[in-house]
């Protein structure tokens, strides 16, 4: 699982955000051994000059944000469409990410799109 997360982080940094002129500066993780001690994980974040911050143990407010994202991904991307290959799945997540960031209104920011908070973001 950590390997797929690292692949996603590397791809997001390299592809998805680069065309927006953005970069990941901080990764917030729990205190799991894999995030604290993995040489591979630290090689990826060091290669992209990404800082790491740990959430407080047993802090539901921080963990709740991750759980909500997981639930949203499952409901809006993973389960509504069946993908036959990893390539199809990767293309589908990029489409969903574009929709989520460029078109989908978000309750937390007054029904605005996420990219409305980024100056000169793609789609503006």
UniProtKB/TrEMBL annotation:
InterPro entries, A to Z: Integrase_cat-core (IPR001584), RNaseH-like_sf (IPR012337), RNaseH_sf (IPR036397)
Gene3D superfamilies: Ribonuclease H-like superfamily/Ribonuclease H
SUPFAM superfamilies hit by this protein: Ribonuclease H-like (SSF53098)
BP-aspect Gene Ontology terms: DNA integration
Transmembrane segments: none
Residue stretches making up the Integrase catalytic domain: 1-121
Molecular functions (GO terms): nucleic acid binding
Protein name: Integrase catalytic domain-containing protein
């Amino acid at each position: 699982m950590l390997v797929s997360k690292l692949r996603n982080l590397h791809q997001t940094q390299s592809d998805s955000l680069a065309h927006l002129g953005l970069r990941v500066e901080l990764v917030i993780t729990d205190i799991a051994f894999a995030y604290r001690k993995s040489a591979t994980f630290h090689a990826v974040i060091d290669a992209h000059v990404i800082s790491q911050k740990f959430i407080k143990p047993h802090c539901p407010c921080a963990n709740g944000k991750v759980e909500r994202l997981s639930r949203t991904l499952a409901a809006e991307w993973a389960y509504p469409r069946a993908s036959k290959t990893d390539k199809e799945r990767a293309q589908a997540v990029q489409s969903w990410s574009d929709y989520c960031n460029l078109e989908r209104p978000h309750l937390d920011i007054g029904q605005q799109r996420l990219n409305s908070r980024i100056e000169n973001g793609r789609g503006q």
